[in-house]
């Protein structure tokens, strides 16, 4: 106690300033260098929501996500290479709003900046197919802003109802509802525009995403609750609480139910075998589209990509209307494990067909609420469909799974190269910090090796078997 009193007394008599050197901050600077600082333009999502979002799109590349200031986040990656890969990988959108990103700099105090130019997605509706070329679309949308890119579905001509194009626009510009251009015959052609999100500025609070009339800071009065108008279809409810929504000619039917105490919907799907009749179901799903929690699961009887169906006699392709329905409703697959192909026709040899026609889909609101939910598709049994199990972990914060090393990774051709490259890399800091940093980088590389060469062995076995069958048929037909 006596020593502490003397220390405090001596420190008060000393007027010299404490000097922090570069060596003092070296370890922290080295730790945060592989990081980016980001924020969502026009939104301030909670930390757990943004953390779930970036973990879904960047997966094992991320080390940690933290809140730096209100609405501003810092994301640390496992290596500087991953950070640069993300920064150079193009635009990222959160709920159709652009994510502003920049590398962390130890000499800057980060905050939201005044952005003058942002990327947005626009949809060109009722545009003739002959104008869907890259050069033609870039000319047409140049009347709105600077052309950036086409979305993959438009580029591959999978969805033909509208063309989706990304453009850079100014924050204070006007956004027309339609564009006009002179066609090859010299006459004027009009194309309607739909903006997925517009950078509307509020003149009251200088924020984005709302007008001055909608601004929460505009009025100091107490807000009043207003009953939401019920625009849903008239439906019948049975004694068990299930709601019968529709029954179309193809006998495709689905039921909607509400979870007690929680707003949202769970829709069970059983789609028709006929593509024309299925489109009635896609239209009904578009009518049911909601921003509340929405889960859809069942037999959609269609696929979203060509790779989701394999077999020698496969001749069907993804239905663009199904893709459009999934995109317009903002749906995506719930995180899953187990079998990839979850249906087969139970035939043998060259007649065997595998596909992924069963799915568990959800909108962004549901995924944000149940970010730890996971679906497991089990092995097929006596039925043609594999069973699927969906497990929810609401409000449970789980730690990271312990990392396990598998000797099979040594057989991968990239193993030795990755090990030597990381171990020879230069990392500044203490010896223990260098070892730990290299081990973390190696763990990320090993996860990549596992994903490339050893994950989803069930699907890989099916694909290899199908290649063998195709080769056998080709050899037999050419003898």
Summarize the structure.
This protein has 479 residues and is of the alpha+beta class. It has four domains: 22-103, Alpha-Beta Plaits (2-Layer Sandwich), CATH 3.30.70; 117-213, no CATH class; 264-391, Endonuclease/exonuclease/phosphatase (Deoxyribonuclease I, Chain A, 4-Layer Sandwich); 407-477, no CATH class. The protein is built from twelve helices and 23 strands.
Map the helices and strands.
Blueprint: H1 2-13, H2 22-32, E1 35-40, H3 47-58, E2 62-69, E3 72-77, H4 80-87, E4 93-94, E5 97-103, E6 117-125, H5 134-141, E7 146-150, H6 152-155, E8 162-170, E9 178-182, E10 188-195, E11 236-237, E12 243-247, E13 253-257, E14 264-270, H7 275-288, E15 293-299, E16 309-310, H8 320-328, E17 331-333, E18 336-338, E19 343-344, E20 354-355, E21 358-363, H9 364-369, E22 374-377, E23 388-391, H10 415-423, H11 431-453, H12 457-477
Parallel strand pairs: 14-15, 18-22
Antiparallel strand pairs: 1-3, 1-5, 2-3, 4-5, 6-8, 6-10, 7-8, 9-10, 11-12, 12-13, 13-14, 15-21, 16-20, 17-21, 19-20, 22-23
Helix pairs in contact: 7-8, 10-11
């Amino acid at each position: 106690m006596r020593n502490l009193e003397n220390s405090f007394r001596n420190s008060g008599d000393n007027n010299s300033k404490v000097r922090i050197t570069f060596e003092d901050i070296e370890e922290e600077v080295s730790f945060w260098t592989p990081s980016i600082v980001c924020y969502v333009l026009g939104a301030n999502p909670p930390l757990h929501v943004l953390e779930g979002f970036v973990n879904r799109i960047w997966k094992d590349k991320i080390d940690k996500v933290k809140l730096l200031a209100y609405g501003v986040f810092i994301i640390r990656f496992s290596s500087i290479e991953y950070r640069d890969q993300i920064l150079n990988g193009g635009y990222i959108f959160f709920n159709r709003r652009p994510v502003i990103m920049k590398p962390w700099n130890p000499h800057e105090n980060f905050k939201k900046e005044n952005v003058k130019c942002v990327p947005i997605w626009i949809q060109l509706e009722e545009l003739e197919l002959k104008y869907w070329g890259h050069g033609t679309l870039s000319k047409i949308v140049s009347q709105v802003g600077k052309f950036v890119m086409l979305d993959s579905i438009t580029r591959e001509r999978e969805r033909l109802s509208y063309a989706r194009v990304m453009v850079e626009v100014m924050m204070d510009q006007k956004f027309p509802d339609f564009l006009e251009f002179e066609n090859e015959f010299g006459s004027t052609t009009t194309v309607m525009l739909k903006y997925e999100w517009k950078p509307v500025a509020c003149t009251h609070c200088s924020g984005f995403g709302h007008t001055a009339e909608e601004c929460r800071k505009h009025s100091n009065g107490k807000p009043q609750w207003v009953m939401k108008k019920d625009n849903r279809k008239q439906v019948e409810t049975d004694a068990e609480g299930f709601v019968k929504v529709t029954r179309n000619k193809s006998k495709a039917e689905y039921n909607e139910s509400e979870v007690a105490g929680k707003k949202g919907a769970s829709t069970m799907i059983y789609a028709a075998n006929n593509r024309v009749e299925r489109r009635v179901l896609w239209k009904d799903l578009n009518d049911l589209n909601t921003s509340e929690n929405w889960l859809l699961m069942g037999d959609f009887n269609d696929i979203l990509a060509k790779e989701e169906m394999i077999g020698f006699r496969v001749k069907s392709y993804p239905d663009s209307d199904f893709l459009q329905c999934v995109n317009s409703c903002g749906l995506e697959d719930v995180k899953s494990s187990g079998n990839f192909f979850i249906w087969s026709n139970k035939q043998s040899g060259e007649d065997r067909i595998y596909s992924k026609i069963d799915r568990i889909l959800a909108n962004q609101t549901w995924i944000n609420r149940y970010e730890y939910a996971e679906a497991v598709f089990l092995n097929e049994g006596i039925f043609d469909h594999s069973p699927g199990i969906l497990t929810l972990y609401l409000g449970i914060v789980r730690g990271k799974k312990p990392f396990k090393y598998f000797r099979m990774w040594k057989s991968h051709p990239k193993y030795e190269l990755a090990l030597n490259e990381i171990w020879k890399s230069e990392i500044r800091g203490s010896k223990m910090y260098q070892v730990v940093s290299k081990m973390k980088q190696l763990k990320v590389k090993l996860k990549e090796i596992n994903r490339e060469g050893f994950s989803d062995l069930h699907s890989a076995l099916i694909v290899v078997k199908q290649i063998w069958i195709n080769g056998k048929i080709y050899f037999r037909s050419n003898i």
